[in-house]
Amino acid sequence: MSGRAEPAENLIFVPKAAEIAREAGARLREFYAQGVETEYKGDVDIVTVADRAVEKLIRTRLGEAFPDHGVYGEEGTRERLEGEFRWYVDPLDGTTNFAHGFPQFCVSLGLEHRTMPVQRANLDHPAQGLKADEDGTLVAAVIYDPLRDEMFTAERGQGTQLNGKAAKVSRTRELAEALLGTGFPSRKRHASPNIHFYQEFTLRSHGVRRAGSAALDLAYVACGRMDAFWEFNLNPWDTAAGILLVEEAGGRVTDFAGARFRLKSDEILASNGLIHDELIGLFGDMFAGRDLAPIPTPEEFARNREQATPSSTNRTMGTPAGTKGPRDQETR
Q1: According to the model, what pLDDT value does residue 160 have?
Q2: Assigned superfamily of 8-117+129-167
């Protein structure tokens, strides 16, 4: 049952993968403390020496521990992809945060079983590998936050754990009471519609956080710190581990229409399951242009502010212009 703690001896892949992630995280802490030079692999998409060095370390350690497993890494590793198992590796999820000294990044390792199940094969064609564009079954996940020393782990059917203790999704039942997370692309930002979704979800929820690490956002949904997460155009190494964490913690992961999520999907919606249908309904309304609150332009904002400014006579008798009265103070 999802969310229950399991003895380590019942886990096949997580113990060694967690050991590798912890070693990789220690290397990230070293790089973080000394500072690293960055370079660009797009207009704003950056990569550091830490990304490459840590991916090399993980690739080596996975090869030693699981020599028959494939490795598909963000920084270009493509090894043994025809194998029965494949690790999706993000050596440093949250590179922009890391490069700026913002303490929100992690190591993410997700394991996919890519052999066709026996029940789908026939006697003439026994179990075999999947096509390149087909998803297998996610069977193990490790996300490690090296600055907080938090290890999120899961194996299929064994529940999700945070530092060895059972983790579960939240019990929030309404979007209005929910804390959400999202992200914005580092590439082709002008083409992303997410600012409009951010606007609507901010108005309809308890708040939206944009922390800069999709893997940690998914881990936070899994342990109940956030109630849902959505984003456009993520990669398999961003999501593979987090998906299993959420599902094994009792949550739900789909695309924006509620269909089964695929690793190469252009969209991901993960939640505690209780508010999932409400979120899907809102996505449907937004894509159809229904019930949207327009975002004021800076010009409109300035005009509205000018019209709302009290006269100079009234200013002398009340709250100074440009300040908020007690009822207007915003809480965060």
Answers
A1: 98
A2: Fructose-1,6-Bisphosphatase, subunit A, domain 1 (3.30.540.10)
DSSP, residue by residue, 23-76: HHHHHHHHHHHH---EEESSSS-EEEHHHHHHHHHHHHHHHHH-TT-EEEETTS
Name the helix (H) or strand (E) containing 99: helix 95-100
- Let me know the angle formed at the C-alpha of 266 by 263 and 267, rounded to the nearest 5 degrees: 90
Distance (Å) of CA 144 to CA 67, 153, 216: 22, 9, 9
Distance CA 70, CA 304 (A): 58
Q: Which residues does 241 contact at the CB level (< 8 Å), separation at least 6?
A: 88, 108, 109, 110, 141, 142, 143, 152, 215, 218
Q: Is the pLDDT of residue 31 over 60?
A: yes
Joined together, the tokens standing for residue 171 give: 């019990």
Q: How is the chain split among helix, strand and coil, in percent rounded to 5?
A: 35, 20, 40
Which residue has tokens 């937004």?
A: 286
Helical H segments across 122-253, by residue range: 194-204, 214-222, 236-248
Structure tokens at 298: 């800076």
Domain ranges of the chain: 8-117+129-167, 175-288
Q: E strand or H helix at 277, and its extent?
A: helix 276-288
CB distance 30 to 147 below 8 Å = no
d(CA 225, CA 248): 16
Cα–Cα distance for residue pair 35/49, rounded to 1 Å = 10
pTM: 0.83
Report how far residue 265's alpha carbon sits from residue 255's, in angstroms, rounded to the nearest whole number.
8
CA dihedral of residues 58, 59, 65, 69 (deg, nearest 10): 130
Q: Give CA separation, 312 vs 6, 315, 317, in Å.
A: 69, 5, 9
Which has more pLDDT, 45 or 228? 228
